[in-house]
Amino acid sequence: MRNLGPIAIVSAMQEELSTLIELMSGEPTTVGSRVFWRAKWFGHDVVAVLSGIGKVAAATTVATLIERFGVQEVLFSGVAGGLGDGVKVGDVVVAKELLQHDFDASPLFPRYEIPLYGRSHFVSSHLQHQWLVQAAKACLPGLSKAMQGEHLLGSLGVNANEIVVHEGLVVSGDQFISSQAQREDLRARLPLALAAEMEGASVAQVCFDFKVPFAAVRVISDRADDQASVNFAQFIEEVAAPYGAHVIQSYLQTRPTDE
After folding, report:
1. Which structural domains are found in the chain, ordered by start?
2. pTM value?
């Protein structure tokens, strides 16, 4: 394959990205208010960046990655609230498609449809999606060693040996879903949604605009209900950060290098 540019790794929160930064030993470059970390990692040119929380922050960050750094693909790694049946705390969701659950330009356009695009769903790149699913599944046997928070998983009733990798719809919106009423509303409106977060669909739209392959992996930190904020910060630092880093490492180790 022809080398088209670096692979971008994006997370919304510092805790989600910190473990990756330590592992890749990158050199920082500041553009605007963002710090981009560049390194050669497992034979790949990699740029990692903290986007900040929300759709606008994520979209501007990814546009900068594409325009300034010429990235050839974008991987988003972070946490999400579980919505789908059987999607439990500690599981992994790899997004097949993404939608903005808070976008509504009706009656001019159907609810969720992005004006001038003729679509509401943005599909992840097939090849990157498959590599990410394979990486997530491949790293599961060694996951307990990668995580520092096994005691936290236990307190949440999660068995590291029963973690499942799911594939499907992930929905994004500029709100933290943290009540049973919000959760039930989303499930009623979007029954196929597996997880809810605050960035992915906007990143997918930017990548669609620039024809840059995109894939996203989310660790389920909560069930997007009244208990969503319980141990959230601790979960991200002790479980999701090393967990997500382990999956990304697996992805880069198994993904073919460009030549």
Report:
1. 78-254 (3.40.50.1580)
2. 0.90
For 185-198, give one letter per residue: b (16+ CB within 10 A) or e: ebbeebeebbbbbb
Can you point out the beta strands (E) in the chain? 7-11, 27-31, 34-41, 44-50, 73-82, 92-100, 122-123, 165-172, 193-197, 214-222
Residue 67 CA to residue 3 CA, distance in Å, equals 16
Q: Is 259 a catalytic residue?
A: no
pLDDT exceeding 90 applies to what percent of the chain? Answer: 63
Nearest partner of 236 among 42, 50, 62, judged by Cα = 50
Question: What is residue 1's predicted lDDT score, i.e. its pLDDT?
Answer: 42
Does residue 16 carry a catalytic annotation?
A: yes
Contact 44, 110 (CB under 8 A): no
The Cα-based distances of 104 to 30, 99, 115 in angstroms read 35, 11, 10
Band of the pLDDT at 258, cuts 50, 70, 90?
low
Please work out, in degrees rounded to the nearest 5, the angle formed at the alpha carbon of residue 4 by the alpha carbons of 2 and 8.
Answer: 130
106 or 26, higher pLDDT: 106
Predicted pLDDT of residue 2: 44
Tokens of 106: 């009706």
Locate 201 and state its tokens. 């669909």
pLDDT, one tens digit per residue, over 164-178 is: 999 999 999 999 888
- Which among 3, 133, 172 has a CA at the least distance from the CA of 73? 3
Q: Which of 91, 167, 222, 237 is catalytic?
A: 222
Tell whether the model's pLDDT for residue 255 goes beyond 50: yes
In order, the DSSP letters of 36-89 are EEEEEETTEEEEEEE--SSHHHHHHHHHHHHHHH--SEEEEEEEEEE-STT--T
